Recover the amino acids of this structure.
């Protein structure tokens, strides 16, 4: 395993040292190093700097997760043919509320009405996609908003 992070210690004189964490290039031929912490003159300072870096990294990873989930939701197979139950099963797999609204609202009005009747008659309106459906369904226009 290639180590991506490196600790650099330097003698700052007067019986003290400074520490700094660097990120190395993934290209093993490159000598590029990018500091990811400031130079720290105590372990406590280095620990705080590293914790701040971890926190920012966690935020970036969470942002990436949300974007990957959005892409994955677009990949959910949607079948607007077949029984109302099959259509609802496809719709209920869409995790993003906006995606559910978009897919439902593109169906013809008659199909939307049949799905609404199916959801209200057979599904638990207090959890999951049925909860979202029941709270956002506009009965007059047969759409989700």
């Amino acid at each position: 395993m290639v180590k991506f992070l490196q600790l650099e210690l330097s003698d700052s004189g007067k019986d003290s040292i400074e520490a700094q964490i660097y990120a190395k290039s993934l290209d093993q031929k490159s000598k590029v190093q990018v500091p990811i912490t400031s130079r720290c003159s105590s372990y406590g300072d280095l620990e705080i700097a590293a914790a701040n870096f971890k926190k920012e990294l966690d935020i970036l990873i969470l942002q990436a997760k949300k974007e990957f989930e959005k892409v994955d939701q677009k990949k959910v197979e949607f079948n607007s043919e077949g029984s109302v139950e099959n259509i609802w099963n496809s719709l209920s797999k869409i995790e993003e509320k906006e995606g559910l609204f978009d897919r439902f609202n593109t169906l013809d009005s008659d199909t939307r009405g049949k799905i609404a009747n199916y959801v209200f008659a057979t599904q638990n309106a207090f959890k999951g996609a049925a909860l979202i459906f029941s709270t956002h369904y506009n009965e007059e226009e047969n759409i989700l908003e």
